[in-house]
Amino acid sequence: MSRLVRRRGQRDPGGGGAMSLSRLCLLMLLVLALAATVAVSLGETPLSLAQYAQALVHPASQPGEVLWTIRAPRVAVAALVGAALGLAGATMQGLLRNPLADPGVLGVSAASGLGAALAISAGLAVIPGAIELSALIGALVAGGLVVVLAARFREPEALILFGVALSAFGGALTALVFNLSPSPVTTAEILAWLMGSVENRDAMDAVRAIVPMALGAVLCVRAGVGLRMLTLGEEAAQMSGLPMARLRVYAVAGAALLTGAAVAAAGVIGFVGLAAPHLVRALVKDDPKRILWPSALAGALLLVLADLAARVVPTEQELKLGVVTALFGAPAFALLAWRASRSWRS
Predict the structure, then answer these.
(1) How far apart are CA 298 and CA 291, in angstroms?
(2) Per-residue pLDDT averaged across 327-345, rounded?
(3) Crossing angle, helix 292-312 and helix 72-96, to 10 degrees?
(4) Domain residues for 282?
(5) Closest CA to 87 of 259, 263, 321
(6) In angstroms, rounded to a whole number, what is the distance separating the alpha carbons of residues 53 and 40?
């Protein structure tokens, strides 16, 4: 019986769709590559065709420095952060069986932001990587607490309620850091970091983000078969013979690592983890396992385009990335929700 349920759970929801999934991912990769090329080419400093050619032939030239030292690492970090948030959002929506879940639902984003705020308030910003490390430690602490809870309780409501409580507590402590900030300059630095940005990121920032993101992605993918089985119901999942408790821990730990690494690399950025899975959900027939990689690619594309908009919109000060994702993303997501509600009514 358990073998039969397991085989059905593994085959039916995504049966016959492996090739189409490959084509979808390939198409999205091509679109992402095109968007990244445009994002590297455009910026606040306009370049002529001769300067583009010079940058390609002589990367150490001044135009080459602009393209390969300033813009390219920034685009790479934006793509990595967007992919991490998209994958974490798809994992959380599958685990909690809630289309409104996002990476911040576990409280990891709030704890990571608190870690960064404490580091800035303590004057550690002068140490390279100290803020990012503090943010990642905060995320790991929060993620560890949620993992322990996920191992003890299988009800998604318990995780959601605990995440809400952890988020509120982290937000309150961050507000306390603001209140006790030693100077207005420090307060401004904390606020700027929490609004999210990939400005002034370099190749080492991308390298530091890859390791925890790769580990989180592996855990989320390992949990994919469990996420698919949960669509059949809690009882069917328990009867399937799959190690559902372990797969839940994989999902929570993977999402926490991805979210923490994203916040550590770029600050707190909303909307992407919530919206990215919805952009591709219809293309994968709402399969929680098959949606993982397309969601990651959709998240990367969203954030690359959002960062490009932040750079090219003519303002005195560059817009923060979290502001751009909220300004452009919230109306777009409202439109998606409206269309979905129409289909539900019909």
Answers:
(1) 10
(2) 68
(3) 140
(4) 49-345
(5) 259
(6) 14
pTM given for the model: 0.86
89 in a structural domain = yes
63-99 pLDDT, tens digit per residue, is 888 889 889 999 999 999 999 999 999 999 888 888 8
Beta-carbon count within 10 A of 151 CB? 13
CA distance 127 to 136: 15
Exposed/middle/buried for 286, CB within 10 Å: 0-12, 13-18, 19+? middle
Residues 6 or more apart from 52 whose CB is under 8 A from it? 41, 63, 67
CATH of the domain at 133: 1.10.3470.10
pLDDT tens digits, one per residue of 91-133: 998 888 888 788 878 888 888 889 888 988 888 877 887 888 8
From CA 144, how far away is CA 154, in angstroms rounded? Answer: 16
Residue range 161-203, pLDDT digits in tens: 888 888 899 889 988 988 888 888 888 888 888 888 888 888 8
Q: Which residues contact 7 (CB under 8 A, 6 or more apart)?
A: none
8 A C-beta contact, residue 142 and residue 107: yes
